[in-house]
């Protein structure tokens, strides 16, 4: 949080929205989705399409970070990468598909440098980035039990490059590069995650904002203490699936919300959530 | 592990006592990583590199290196060392031939993100057909990634250049990745006397606060990148931002030159600068050319040698000046493309005097007799001297 403070004398030249972040940002305050509208958010505006469910999901994720002042996000190429540079938190765009490898190195480096603080590393990537081009590093980070959270923003296709088929597209759907309809089913990555070593796995939707927030928060807390966490968020894309933007949330509801924890994770989450200050989890390691 | 003490880079390179050991190149580079106070090594097996990173694994087990793991493939290893360097620690990795190509998308990222990663390239042939044999074709491809590229001749060079690489890479005005290349097998698997600095002395730890791109740790300002990001925007400001950033990466490599003089004694080593016939070469070809030079001088033929230690930033001024004197410049290389001859040709006034060859590849050795024979053939053919 020291990093955010303005050197004396510079208050007048700093942009207004930066001043607001310092004065009223979420750092160190234990805020959550329920507090939206009462504080300065980590993202002010973004350039994604009107009604973009992915943009909304990112907004909710950012509001759910248990300790934004000690969180670093690793994104990847895709619609998320257009928004991320505007987020007031350290974040990395490296290449398309290598986010979990970058996060592995980063998390281990931060553990070496800050052994007494939980520096949360959160991977946030599109479905193509996770399940296709980045599947190897994603799965290997789970096999190795790397302690960070992977969030897939699942818009069921490659949106940023103009709506091509991805592994998460549903069977039969006609999109670019699947001119006869996709020939194999949506990859059940949330099931794969369980056998690959994740201690926490959830499927969520921005249409259930508080539940999404709870899941993201639980995932990050489990990743700190127990093992890898995976959250898959359904974010329908109006631009490429060609439906009116106003329908995004209605469509986003059409997905199953699921939550899985290994017993140690469940115990740990119960301990935190039943504790006296559920909203103020210490991030001392 | 003995109790270790931090010493200055200048002391380690210039004043520390040296002990003679009989080492292969893979052992020498691992000894350098130990003394370089590396925080983390991430590795993947490939011949002829693997032995070096096995030894570094043992060093991790002994406590010299703080974190170490085998990654899933070279692309992800190079991505993971990038993540670690972005997180503010000193990293080491190594690869060879096919591994270099598998990882290639990452090298311009290292340079573009100004990460002072040191990677050893124990070069080997690339497929197809499958080869594990010595061949340094990959150095020519690495040369335009934005990294600094050094080319070591023997295990001693490999040890020294790896230490020099960390010291130069981490200069605040440079802050770029360095590839320390050697010809696989010829250096990695050849045992020679190497003079090592004391085992209990190490370089000062890396200070991420000197990085021109802030460490991704939420401890360093600014925590917010920009309000109106230029990524993927189609306007002059975005193009110009990207263009000037690329120029700055190249400018940082230019600024490495003075540090190359200070810590490496310069990018080249010259024997008989006034000779009529000049061998200009790098890596183990320089060792073979030295023997060829001595044999020919014993016969009264006026031959000299320029060993090029630094491929990037290329010593263009030095080479252009040296190229004025001889009547013919011969560039022996361990690859089919002749990338070094191309580099030299593009930098000298009269490039018709540059002869690319002998070139051996696919695992072929380069006996000094071959260099002598090729040179004499050129002389007999009446090439201007
Ligand atoms: C190596 C490489 N291959 C392909 C691309 C092109 N590319 C950029 S973004 C993208 C699609 C991203 O899709 P997804 O990960 O599903 O994210 P979305 O845009 O849908 O949010 C592709 C194919 C690239 N940038 N790099
Ligand atoms: S293309 Fe789709 S996912 Fe991308 S910003 Fe637009 S609506 Fe969102």
Report on the structure:
Chain A is globular, with a radius of gyration of 18 Å. Chain A is built from eleven helices and seven strands. Chain A is 36% helix and 13% strand. Chain B has helices spanning 9-15, 25-35, 50-62, 74-86, 97-102, 106-112, 137-142, 155-169, 236-264, 284-298, 316-322, 339-345, 368-380, and strands at residues 5-6, 19-24, 40-43, 67-70, 91-95, 118-123, 148-151, 178-183, 191-196, 201-202, 268-271, 277-281, 303-308, 310-312, 328-333, 354-359. Helix content of chain B is 39%, strand content 19%. The model of chain B has no long low-confidence stretch (mean pLDDT 95). In chain B, strands 4-3-5-6-8-7-14 form a seven-stranded mixed β-sheet, with helices on both faces. Chain B has a five-stranded mixed β-sheet with strand order 11-13-12-15-16, with helices on both faces. In chain B, strands 1-10 form a two-stranded parallel ribbon. Chain B folds into two domains: 5-209, 3-Layer(aba) Sandwich (Rossmann fold), CATH 3.40.50; 268-380, Rossmann fold, CATH 3.40.50. The chains are: A alpha/beta (285), B alpha/beta (385). The A-B interface holds A 2-4, 15, 17-18, 21, 44, 69-72, 74, 81-82, 85-95, 98, 101-110, 112-114, 119, 136-137, 140, 144 and B 39-40, 42, 66-67, 69, 71-73, 75-77, 79-89, 91, 105-106, 109, 113, 214, 216-221, 223-229, 231-232. The structure holds thiamine diphosphate and iron/sulfur cluster. Iron/sulfur cluster binds next to helix 9 of chain A.
Number of helices of chain A: 11
Give the count of structural domains of chain A. 1
Helix content of chain A: 25-40%
User: CATH class of the largest domain in chain B, anyone?
Assistant: Alpha Beta
Indicate the CATH topology of the largest domain in chain B: Rossmann fold
The number of E-state strands of chain B comes to 16
Q: Give the strand line-up of the largest sheet of chain B.
A: 4-3-5-6-8-7-14
Order of helices and strands of chain A: HHEHEHEHHEHEHEHHEH
The parts of chain B where pLDDT drops under 50 for at least 5 residues are: none
**Proportion of residues in β-strands of chain A:** 5-15%
CATH topology of chain A: Rossmann fold
State the fourth-level CATH superfamily of chain A. Thiamin diphosphate (ThDP)-binding fold, Pyr/PP domains
Q: For the terminal residues of chain B, how far apart are their CA atoms?
A: 58 Å
- Going across the biggest sheet of chain A, name each strand in turn: 2-1-3-4-6-5-7
Bound molecules: thiamine diphosphate, iron/sulfur cluster
Reading the helices and strands of chain B in chain order gives EHEHEHEHEHHEHEHEEEHEEHEEHEHEH
Oligomeric nature of the chains = heterodimer
**CATH-level-4 superfamily name of the largest domain in chain B:** Thiamin diphosphate (ThDP)-binding fold, Pyr/PP domains
Proportion in β-strands of chain B? 15-25%
Query: How many helical elements of chain B?
Result: 13
Rg on CA atoms of chain A, Å: 18 Å
């Amino acid at each position: 949080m020291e990093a955010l403070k303005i050197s004396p004398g510079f208050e007048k030249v700093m942009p207004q929205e930066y001043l607001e972040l310092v004065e009223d940002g979420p750092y160190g305050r234990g805020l959550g989705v329920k507090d939206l509208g009462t504080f300065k958010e980590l993202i002010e505006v973004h350039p994604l399409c009107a009604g973009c469910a992915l943009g909304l999901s990112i907004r909710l994720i950012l509001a759910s970070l248990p300790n934004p002042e000690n969180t670093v996000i690793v994104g990847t190429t895709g619609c998320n990468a257009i928004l991320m540079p505007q987020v007031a938190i350290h974040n990395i765009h490296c290449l398309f598909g290598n986010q979990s490898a970058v996060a592995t190195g980063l998390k281990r480096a931060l553990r070496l440098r800050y052994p007494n603080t939980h520096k949360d590393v959160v991977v946030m990537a599109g479905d193509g980035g996770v399940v296709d081009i980045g599947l190897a590093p994603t799965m290997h980070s789970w096999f190795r039990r790397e302690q960070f959270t992977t969030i897939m923003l699942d818009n069921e296709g490659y949106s940023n490059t103009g709506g091509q088929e991805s592994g998460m597209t549903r069977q039969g759907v006609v999109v670019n590069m699947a001119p006869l309809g996709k020939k194999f089913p949506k990859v059940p990555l949330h099931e794969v995650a369980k056998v690959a070593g994740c201690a926490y796995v959830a499927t969520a939707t921005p249409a259930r904002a508080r539940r999404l927030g709870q899941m993201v928060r639980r995932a990050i807390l489990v990743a700190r203490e127990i093992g890898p966490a995976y959250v898959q968020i359904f974010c329908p894309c109006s631009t490429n699936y060609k439906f009116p933007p106003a329908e995004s949330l209605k469509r986003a509801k059409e997905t199953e919300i699921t939550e899985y924890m290994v017993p140690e994770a469940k115990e740990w989450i119960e301990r935190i959530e039943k504790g006296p200050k559920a909203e103020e989890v210490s991030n001392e390691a | 592990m003995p109790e270790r003490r931090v010493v200055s880079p200048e002391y380690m390179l210039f004043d520390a006592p040296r002990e003679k050991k009989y080492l292969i190149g893979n052992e020498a580079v691992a000894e350098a990583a130990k003394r370089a106070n590396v925080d983390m090594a991430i590795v993947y097996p490939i011949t002829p590199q693997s032995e070096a990173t096995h030894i570094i694994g043992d060093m991790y087990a002994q406590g010299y290196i703080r974190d170490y793991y085998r990654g899933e493939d070279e692309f992800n290893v190079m991505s993971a060392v990038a993540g670690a360097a972005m997180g503010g620690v000193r990293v080491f990795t190594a690869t060879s031939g096919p591994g270099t190509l598998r990882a290639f998308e990452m090298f311009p990222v290292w340079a573009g993100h100004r990460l002072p990663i040191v990677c050893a390239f124990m070069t080997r042939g690339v497929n197809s057909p499958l080869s594990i044999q010595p061949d340094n074709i990959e150095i020519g491809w690495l040369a335009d990634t934005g990294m600094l590229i050094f080319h070591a001749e023997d295990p001693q060079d490999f040890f020294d250049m790896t230490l020099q690489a960390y010291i130069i890479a981490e200069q605040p005005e440079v802050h770029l990745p360095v590839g320390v290349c050697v010809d696989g097998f010829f250096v990695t698997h050849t045992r020679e006397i190497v003079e090592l600095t004391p085992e209990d002395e190490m370089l000062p730890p890396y200070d991420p606060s000197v990085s021109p791109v802030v460490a991704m740790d939420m401890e360093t300002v600014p925590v917010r990148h920009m309000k109106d990001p230029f990524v993927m925007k189609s306007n002059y400001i975005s193009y110009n931002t990207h263009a000037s950033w690329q120029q700055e990466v190249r400018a940082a490599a230019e600024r490495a030159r003075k540090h190359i003089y200070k810590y490496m004694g310069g990018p080249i080593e010259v024997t008989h600068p006034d000779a009529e016939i000049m061998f200009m070469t790098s890596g183990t070809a320089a060792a073979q050319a030295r023997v060829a030079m001595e044999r020919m001088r014993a016969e009264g033929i006026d031959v000299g040698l320029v060993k090029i230690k630094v491929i990037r930033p290329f010593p263009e001024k030095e080479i252009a000046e040296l190229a004025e004197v001889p009547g013919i410049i011969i560039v022996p290389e361990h690859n089919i493309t002749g990338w070094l001859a191309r580099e030299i040709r593009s930098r000298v006034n009269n490039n018709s005097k540059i002869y690319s060859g002998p070139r051996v590849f696919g695992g072929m050795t380069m006996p000094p007799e071959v260099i002598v024979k090729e040179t004499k053939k050129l002389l007999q053919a009446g090439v201007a001297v």
